[in-house]
Amino acid sequence: MKWDDLNAQPCSIARALAVIGDRWTLMILRDCFLGVRRFEAFQARLGISRTIVTDRLRLLVEEGVLRREAYQANPVRHEYRLTDKGLELHPVILAIARFGDEHYADEAGPPVLRRHKGCGCDFQPVQVCSACGEPVSARQVEARAGVGFAGV
Amino acid sequence: MKWDDLNAQPCSIARALAVIGDRWTLMILRDCFLGVRRFEAFQARLGISRTIVTDRLRLLVEEGVLRREAYQANPVRHEYRLTDKGLELHPVILAIARFGDEHYADEAGPPVLRRHKGCGCDFQPVQVCSACGEPVSARQVEARAGVGFAGV
């Protein structure tokens, strides 16, 4: 399979990864959630080529994850902001952060702390079932083909 | 920055992505959570080269995400199973699936349905705060440097 064929798969994970699965894309999205908005800032923070940044931002805009907005008129300059669709990627980034905090933090502890404004506490994300509200672990999930499954 | 330098970043997301951020690695992990265990099965399902599969599986074993286990003695054949650390990646995969279900499913609906064995219902994962149990969205989170932050 070529990477470009992924979005033809009857699999939501494959299709989502066709958009966000690129390694640098995920790092750019991390930065978006930290409030980074400008091309130069993405490039400086990640220390990668302009081409990589340009390509990744273009795909994210095409897919409606980011929107490109002028923040200055003369000369025109643009910034990149998460759309509502983009904000829905927050659970993905947070789940990755949690795994990293758990397994790759230095002895001093996680490098970044996250506070839930709602309750004022530092927190880690917990994944619960939309039906019963209980935490869900891998062993408690049974996957089966839905009507949207065309067969592979 | 080179990709290999990511794990030196004082960022749990960067460090986690240094291990799982590769596109095919995430597809392999998807398959692991669907019960795929054998080299040939990973390769056949993804239709990618043996080299890519070999490399990705080796890194996942080195990192303790998968363990390699003999399932046959003569000739010796191995399978790859998620470790406890690997099972902790379930929230990442599930969060990606949810984003895909939401934005990339066909009209007929999500291709794969997931049932929570605990309550017997089909569900979507919801991310809640570990402190108060309420759902957490991007706008409700404030990130700050922790003691494990060495500065970039």
Protein model, in words:
Two copies of one chain form a homodimer. Chain A has 152 residues and is α+β, with helices and mostly antiparallel strands. Chain A has a single domain, classed as Winged helix-like DNA-binding domain superfamily/Winged helix DNA-binding domain (Arc Repressor Mutant, subunit A, Orthogonal Bundle), CATH 1.10.10.10. The first copy, chain A, is built from six helices and six strands; from the N terminus they run ααααββααββββ. A two-stranded antiparallel sheet of chain A has the order 1-2. In chain A, strands 3-4 form a two-stranded antiparallel sheet. The longest helix of chain A has 15 residues, at 90-104. The two termini of chain A are 12 Å apart. The mean pLDDT of chain A is 91. At the A-B interface, α1, α2, α6, β3 and β4 of A face α1, α2, α6, β3 and β4 of B.
Number of helices of chain A: 6
Instruction: Please describe the biggest sheet of chain A, giving its number of strands, its sense, and whether it closes into a barrel.
Output: 2 strands, antiparallel
Q: In CATH terms, what is the fold-level topology of chain A?
A: Arc Repressor Mutant, subunit A
Helix share bin of chain A:
25-40%
Number of domains of chain A: 1
**Strand/helix succession of chain A:** HHHHEEHHEEEE
What structural class should be given to the helix and strand makeup of chain A?
alpha+beta
Low-confidence stretches of chain A: none
The end-to-end distance of chain A, rounded to whole angstroms, is: 12 Å
Instruction: Tell me the Rg of chain A in angstroms.
Output: 18 Å
Shape of chain A: globular
| Protein chains sharing the most extensive interface | A-B, 91 and 91 residues
Strand content of chain A: 15-25%
